[in-house]
Amino acid sequence: MTVTQAGRNADTGAFDSPTVQDFLNIDAHLSDGEKGIREKIRLFVHDRIKPNIKGWYDEAVFPKEIVSEFAELGLLGMHLSGYGCAGRSAVEYGLACMELEAGDSGLRTFVSVQGSLAMSAISRFGSEEQKQEWLPRMARGETIGCFGLTEPTAGSDPASMKTFASKEGSDWVLNGEKRWIGLATIADVAVVWARTDEEKNPVRGFLVPTDSAGFTAKDITPKLSMRASIQCDIELKNVRLPEGAMLPEARGLGGPFACLNEARYGIIWGAMGAARDCYESALAYAKEREQFGRPIASFQLVQEKLANMLIEVGKGTLLALHIGRMKDAGTLEPEHISFGKLNNVREAIEIAREARTVFGGNGVTLDYPPMRHMSNLESVRTYEGTDEVHTLILGNAITGISAFR
Fold first, then answer.
1. From residue 85, how far is each of 120, 145, 220, 259, 321 by CA, in Å?
2. Known catalytic membership, residue 384
3. Do residues 384 and 344 make contact, with C-beta atoms less than 8 angstroms apart?
């Protein structure tokens, strides 16, 4: 399977491509290296994820054996440099996220939690000793990390977190609860954010080995979304840590927010992967499914659905690429990430819903991907900042007035 530019079929007038319809010739804006990364991940998704995701999703199983395969592909901490990480560009990382989420949001989420959240926190805010201890093993997939910020009563408002770290001699003692923490029950280390009694920037980050006394994690079940992924509750009960467990360079909420922006960036691309998979599956089905003696793709209302999906996938992918170029150039601001996350996830959900209608009743089964993607995207729409939060971030950016408090 190769990535090719779409051409026009001389007989039908339609645009053809064995892999992806590149209607806007977006490939012209990618380097050979970027296309090579994308093709490698696309082939992996085609061969390894798509044949199995129906079963994983139906049985609510995260295939832990796939972690080593992600590592071999250089996906873990892909955008980080040194310590065994691949050091790829923002655009290369984004393209990888797009292909992974064309397979399933839950599996792209693993790469995001491991790399954009846990590894990014250690890389950006950790000591040299912490980086040497954790990052190489995490890049090889030998060690799994999670990121503990959200709490049962502190979701969109992390400043109200109740998890507290108190100083006792040279140790830190953590108490509190975290919720919706990806990978926690299979993680070896948790990046936990907690309040301290420091007057200035009281929120600090801690590296908590998950085998620490007083640390417990429990899967959140049953779920109607992200079924091939793991989300958990965490309880911290008098978890005692040495002084060296604190991330020395993270002070205040700016630390976790910086990591969240890394994860949100990957979502901008990933959502378009899910949307593209919905569009392509609907197009293929519409050409094959016959009603009233002809393929349903011949009907005007179906063509309108397909045309609208094509437009939004193209626009969203161009937006992701533009934001990726800004990130690589160092000109990206947090508000730009909110722009991309809000638009692309919102549009991806609409594409998934519209694609499902093309399949009729067949669309509610796991034989076809749109409803699975639709369900997953409801979680993607919620985590790393809800629509409402990103709307208000943009509102603040354009008016200069904060609506949060």
1. 11, 15, 31, 17, 22
2. yes
3. no
pLDDT at position 17: 44
**Spatial distance between the Cα atoms of 266 and 91, rounded to a whole number of angstroms:** 10
| CA distance linking residue 379 with residue 220, whole number of Å | 13
Cis peptide before 222 (omega within 30 of 0): yes
End-to-end Cα spacing for the chain: 52
Q: How many helices (H) and strands (E) does the chain have?
A: 12, 13
Crossing angle between the packed helical segments 254-288 and 90-103, to the nearest 10 degrees: 50
Model confidence pLDDT, tens digit, residues 158-189: 999 999 999 999 999 999 999 999 999 999 99
- Spans in the chain with pLDDT lower than 70: 1-21
Q: Which residues pair with 333 in a beta bridge?
A: none
Which residues, 6 or more positions from 98, have their beta carbon under 8 angstroms from its beta carbon? 38, 269, 270, 272, 273, 276, 317, 320
| Residue carrying the six token digits 């990390």 | 145
Q: What is the predicted pLDDT for the residue at 199?
A: 83
Give me the catalytic one of 199, 262, 384, 388: 384
Q: How far is CA 211 from the centre of its chain?
A: 26
Helix, strand, coil share (%) of the chain residues, nearest 5: 55, 15, 30
User: Which pLDDT score is estimated for 18?
Assistant: 38
- Work out the mean pLDDT of the chain and round it to a whole number: 94
Helix (H) or strand (E) holding 290: strand 290-291
Two tokens at 257? 């927010």
